[in-house]
Amino acid sequence: MTMLEFDFKKQIMVLKKEKNAVVLAHNYQLPEVQDVADFTGDSLALSKNAASTDADVIVFCGVHFMAETASIICPDKRVLIPDLEAGCSLASTINAQELKAWKDEHPNAAVVSYVNTTAEVKALSDYCCTSSNAVKVVSSIPAAQEVLFLPDLFLGSYVAEVTKRKNMYIWPGECHVHAGIKAEDINSMLATFKNADFLVHPECSCTSSTMYHMSKGDLSKTGHILSTEGMMKHARTSNAEQFVVATETGILYRMKKENPEKEFIPIKRDAVCKYMKKIDLQKVYNSLAHNVYEVKVPSDVADKARLAIDRMLSIS
Ligand code: 13P
Ligand code: SF4
Fold first, then answer.
1. Domain ranges of the chain
2. Which of 118, 177, 201, 309 to mutate to test the pocket of ligand 1 (most atoms within 8 A of CB)?
3. What's the CATH number for 183-266?
4. CB atoms within 10 A of CB 211
5. Ligand 2, atom 3: nearest CA belongs to which residue?
6. What is the architecture of the domain spanning 91-176?
7. Which CATH code is given to the segment(s) 8-87+276-297?
8. In angstroms, rounded to a whole number, what is the distance separating the alpha carbons of residues 240 and 262?
9. pTM for the whole thing?
10. 44, 69, 205, 250: which is deepest, by most CB within 10 A?
């Protein structure tokens, strides 16, 4: 039998049963991967799902920090990532050394780390957050306490604007995919798609211009700054027929699949995360068949990081 004739999808289903395994996939994963997943969602939903599953094995189809988070939450389970090169340009903008130095400058500050960070960085943080609960997490911190928010500059600026917090310092990190979605992209789409709802991820560099348009009235009813799962929910419940989607294009597959009668327009066709696309069906099969690649976080780091993640899960 040639590789082409091998039915990876069917074999993945067999192995999942045999090994009591679940496949979790982020909304940006390739369609073929989403189709074999037991659950597809945003980073928060994936963390919650990992925390509640009774499977023995979790095949995590996303990027490395997400699999690390699952391993921290479920230290007794085997967490696998099908490709070790599935990294994240945003998570690599800050390391533990840099965070230690920043904390030394603000010894009384609460550290809020976006989930797109390494386990070592989470271990030095007070709270973890994702794009869907960042505002809630920051709002839960006493107003007089300084906040160090990392690593995303655009998400941080958005949270500071919504919470009106003046004592919040923001790390200047960015995701190469979302930083490439600019104010001009929103402006030109606004002129073309007058009746569409605009769904914007808070990591985008156009987030502040979207907020500006919302405050001016141009987007007051149709502009929405949302996490990927927030976008999915909005696509389901809105009466609009057209949606301009400002995030990684992988989400369009699930949007269209769940809402075939609606139209979804990517704000930029080349907003593609090469790390999210590292995983394909063959690698998912390989992962399940050979138990590769196991993601394990040293217990001293995991114990500290778990506190920050648990705080996030209890707030959201
Ligand atoms: P979500 O938490 O909205 O899924 O975003 C994760 C991410 O990596 C965005 O690029
Ligand atoms: Fe990281 Fe950006 Fe890819 Fe999300 S889209 S995983 S933030 S590089």
1. 8-87+276-297, 91-176, 183-266
2. 201
3. 3.40.50.10800
4. 19
5. 273
6. 3-Layer(aba) Sandwich (3.40)
7. 3.40.50.10800
8. 8
9. 0.95
10. 69
**Which pair of tokens denotes residue 277?**
């696309």
Q: What is the distance in A from the centroid of ligand 1 to the CA of 175?
A: 10
Ligand 1 within 6 A of 203 CB?
yes
Q: Is 138 in the pocket of ligand 2 (CB under 6 A)?
A: no
- Atom index in ligand 1 nearest the CA of residue 130 equals 2
Q: What is the pLDDT along the chain (316 residues), one digit of tens a residue?
A: 666 668 999 999 999 999 999 999 999 999 999 999 999 999 889 988 999 999 999 999 999 999 999 999 999 999 999 999 999 999 999 999 999 999 999 999 999 999 999 999 999 999 999 988 999 999 999 999 999 999 999 999 999 999 999 999 999 999 999 999 999 998 889 889 999 999 999 999 998 888 878 877 888 878 999 999 999 999 999 999 999 999 999 999 999 999 999 999 999 999 999 999 999 999 999 999 999 999 999 999 999 999 999 999 888 7
Which residues contact residue 155 at a Cβ distance below 8 angstroms, ignoring those fewer than 6 apart?
114, 131, 134, 149, 202, 203, 207
Show the tokens assigned to 206.
Answer: 């156009």
